[in-house]
TrEMBL record:
This is Mitochondrial genome maintenance protein. One of its GO terms (molecular function) is single-stranded DNA binding. It comes from Cavenderia fasciculata (Slime mold). One of its GO terms (biological process) is recombinational repair. It is found in: Mitochondrion matrix, Mitochondrion nucleoid. Residues 259-271, 285-301 have a biased composition (Low complexity). Residues 29-66, 247-273, 285-317 are annotated as: Disordered.
Length: 369
């Protein structure tokens, strides 16, 4: 009986919650021209050549990337006109420097706290009004060493405020499309520029970080139900940022017990109780000092898990995408909604497969934040 599915992605090893770029050694190498002429004939030279996937030499590629990033428009003195001429009005600065709502702050598993990008946009809209601020690009996107990079400058009420390079991990042919990676780089640049306006400055204050973590987050031990590995992750106390499969929460005492047992006994096969739902999978190290746990069973079993290759064909139940792979489906703008519909409608193995794909997409989205 199949109890668990997890996605194996060529290019993204989701089983370990880390991205790998072993899928392809190809690097997306667009070419750029920064001609400012407005004639139709010359405008054609400013078009980014996304269609030609030619692979120049490494030296030519490095020179082209450097030229694209260090273009003269990004450092043009004209954009700095009236820079720091006067402060913004008091009612604007009160919004920009306002205290953050603790409920708006999120925490990553490694303990880094952050404010979601949409919150920065809302603060800017509240301070300057929609249309009162803009993030202007100064050059096209460039892919360097697995990262999509694009320069931006933030203007508020027609005045230059700050500039930064937006950055987003990107591998051609991976799960993330070029357009989505470009949008993520824009959001990254916005967050960096907003630092100069003082938005969310407390997120970099060590004292605030310690106090916020003590009041709103907790660091707990988690066990990988596939490998038995144990690690500590941060999550919100209100449960709104759970650590997803294959990690399962484990008490610190059981962690110490497991460490001692590893030194004295060989690792045993995981135990599985037929009365436990498939969401409760047993760690690979037995824990005799926790007799109350519902994992215990007098009969031995195995971890009923299976790898789902993201480049494998979808099951025939997904009639709308028959003959296509999972990767092709999730790259379709309507494909993800269709997968969610199948997960909520159908049953059996296809339900587990679609749920595994959804979990995979959620993990990728979390890593981009």
């Amino acid at each position: 009986m199949l109890n668990r599915l997890f996605v194996r992605n060529i290019g993204f090893r989701v089983t370990t919650l880390t991205a790998a770029s072993s899928h392809s050694n190809k690097t997306f190498q667009p070419t750029y021209s920064y001609s400012t002429s407005s004639s139709p004939q010359q405008q054609s030279t400013t078009t980014t050549n996304y269609a030609s996937h030619q692979q120049p030499s490494s030296q030519q590629s490095a020179n082209k990337q450097q030229q694209a990033l260090l273009n003269e428009r990004f450092y043009d003195e004209e954009k700095f006109k009236d820079i720091s001429k006067e402060p913004f009005a008091r009612e604007i600065t009160d919004v920009l420097l306002g205290e953050l709502d603790n409920n708006d702050i999120e925490i990553k598993p490694d303990g880094i706290i952050y404010l979601p990008e949409i919150k920065y946009r809302r603060i800017l809209n509240q301070a300057f009004g929609p249309g009162g601020w803009a993030l202007k690009p100064f050059g096209g996107p460039v892919v360097i060493s697995g990262s999509l990079i694009r320069p931006y400058a933030l203007f508020c009420l027609g005045r230059y405020v700050s500039e930064s390079f937006g950055e987003q991990p990107y591998v051609e042919g991976g799960h993330l499309s070029f357009a989505t990676a470009n949008e993520a780089a824009k959001s990254n640049a916005l967050v960096r520029c907003c630092k100069d306006l003082g938005i969310g400055s407390s997120l970099w204050d060590p004292t605030f970080i310690r106090n916020w973590k003590a009041a709103n987050a907790a660091e707990k031990f988690y066990v990988n139900v596939k490998s038995g590995e144990k690690r500590k992750f941060w999550s919100l106390k209100n449960g709104n940022s759970p650590i997803n499969y294959p990690w399962k929460e484990s008490s610190s005492s059981s962690y110490n017990d497991g460490q001692q047992q590893q030194q004295t006994q060989p690792i045993q096969q995981p135990q599985f109780d037929s009365s436990v739902s498939f969401d409760e999978v047993i760690p690979s190290i037995s824990q005799p000092k926790q007799p109350q746990q519902s994992f215990q069973s007098s009969s031995s079993s195995v971890d009923h898990s299976e790898e789902l290759d993201i480049d494998s064909p979808v099951p025939p139940q997904l009639k709308k995408y028959a003959g296509k792979t999972w990767r092709e489906v999730i790259q379709d703008p309507k494909g993800i909604d269709y997968i969610k519909w199948v997960a909520n409608t159908l049953t059996g193995k296809v339900k587990l497969q679609t749920q595994a794909i959804i979990n995979f997409l959620n993990e990728q989205q979390n890593q981009q934040q």
